[in-house]
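Researcher: We plan to redesign the surface later, but first we want a full-length starting point. Tokens attached.
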């Protein structure tokens, strides 16, 4: 069974969609550990409720990014994690971390990349005035939101959207495509060829 290590920073609704997919038998994986970079966040509660090992590695308690990442890596290795799943994790991982799990880190981002990378996708989408937005699941490389794209889903941007209404519409799609992508990974059907990710039939 593939072991996932899920990293979150807050509410954890993407985490919940993964937990629910596993419970429903749609995702044949195990969440070995949930890690957060902040204390007292809902993601930790969701993990507890599902009896999943969970731990806060509070970024504020570390002097440097590299010490923080070493602590994260220690937990992931101890839990024998195969795939690192960023689910609302609001930090950029350093190249050395990415190298440790080369092609074994995924992220979900709430825009149609390469448009609107970074921490304020919905705000940037609304400010720009685009008519379509969505979400993107991609492998993580050394850049920011720049790795090979695995799957995207589009939603309409409405004239009266706020960041909240747009985020809610995008999240519905996130909760569908992230578990789906993870199951494709588990089935060994994702093949990275340069910048492209091919989804193979078997
Ligand atoms: C999601 O919309 C996710 O795509 C986004 O944060 C939200 C987390 O929601 N991630 C990023 O913006 C990463 N740069 P959640 O905590 O309810 O899963």
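Model: Full-length starting sequence:
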């Amino acid at each position: 069974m593939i072991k996932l290590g899920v990293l979150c920073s807050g509410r954890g609704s993407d985490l919940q969609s993964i937990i629910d997919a596993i419970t429903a038998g749609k995702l044949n994986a195990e969440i070995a550990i949930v890690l957060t970079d902040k204390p007292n966040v809902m993601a930790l509660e969701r993990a507890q409720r599902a009896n999943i090992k969970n731990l806060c590695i509070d970024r504020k308690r570390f002097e440097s990014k590299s010490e923080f990442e070493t602590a994260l890596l220690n937990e992931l290795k101890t839990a024998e994690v195969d795939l690192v799943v960023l689910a609302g994790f609001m930090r950029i991982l350093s190249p050395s971390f990415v190298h440790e799990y080369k092609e074994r880190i995924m992220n979900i981002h709430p825009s149609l990349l390469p448009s609107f990378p970074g921490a304020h996708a919905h705000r940037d989408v609304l400010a720009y005035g685009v008519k379509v937005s969505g979400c993107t699941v991609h492998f993580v490389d050394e850049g920011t939101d720049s790795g090979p794209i695995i799957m995207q889903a589009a939603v309409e941007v409405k004239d009266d959207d706020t960041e909240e209404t747009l985020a809610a519409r995008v999240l519905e799609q996130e909760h569908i495509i992230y578990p789906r992508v993870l199951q494709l990974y588990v089935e060994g059907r994702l093949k990275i060829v340069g910048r492209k990710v091919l989804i193979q039939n078997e």
